[in-house]
Amino acid sequence: MNASAARWADSRIESPSLAELAAEKISELVFRGELRPNDRLVEEHICQRLGVSRAPVREGLRILEGSGLLVRRPRAGVSVAAFSQDDVFEILSFREGLERMSVEHLYRYTEDVQKVDSSELDAAFERLVEEFRHGDDEFNRIQASHGFHTELVRLCGNSRIITSYTQITMQVKLCMSMNLRKLRPIEPPESNISRHRGLRDAVLSGDLHEALHAIDTHGHDAFVHDLLDDLPEGTDRLKQWIASHQRMIEGAEN
């Protein structure tokens, strides 16, 4: 390969990785709360913050637009997505539906669920334990929590379900960041660990009813009852969803 071809090959490898890194760093600013809903992102400021040129930042913004974390409006540029009550309802109900689907698929097409390889899920749980027990970084806790749920979904082995779940990662993480900020003052880290341990054990129990009940009552939507009051009002469907989940969680506690 001559020098010119080598430089061309290097550029083809380097640019996407820089863009992905830019997207990762920008999303981290959002999840840490340094960029808030409706905040406008100015390319020049982001370039200075990340220490990279405009090209990867511009591409990183496009990646995050595609994920639903950022939105682009005519004559207004790019800003952080501001969710309405219905947005949160759709994201969380879709996430829960995918988790239920993955568990149902696991039980339908696995001869003995109790013997399934759970090593990746267990490793993700240990990372979660480490972050909630010994760490104090909200973003790392979000990463660990979502990593656990992603590995839970991966148990099903259905690539379409897994892909659908990963495609809403950014929107789910934004909801999770809202969740943790709301729960942090009232839920001790050990309670969070216990909830996730219970979910892991129920899904691998061999009892489909117990596994699905654990998904329904896990509490990843617990924050909505207070937090949604601060968002634009939603539809009757959302109110019914909140009421049904509240009854389910209260039933699980009694």
TrEMBL record:
Which InterPro entries does the UniProt entry name for this protein? GntR_C (IPR011711), TF_FadR/GntR_C (IPR008920), Tscrpt_reg_HTH_GntR (IPR000524), WH-like_DNA-bd_sf (IPR036388), WH_DNA-bd_sf (IPR036390)
Q: PROSITE patterns, alphabetically? A: HTH_GNTR
On the tree of life, the source organism's domain of life is Bacteria
- Pfam families on file: FCD, GntR
- CDD domains named among the record's database cross-references: WHTH_GntR (cd07377)
| Gene Ontology molecular function: any one | DNA binding
UniProt keywords, alphabetically:
DNA-binding, Transcription, Transcription regulation
Residues covered by the HTH gntR-type domain: 16-83
Designated name of the protein: GntR family transcriptional regulator
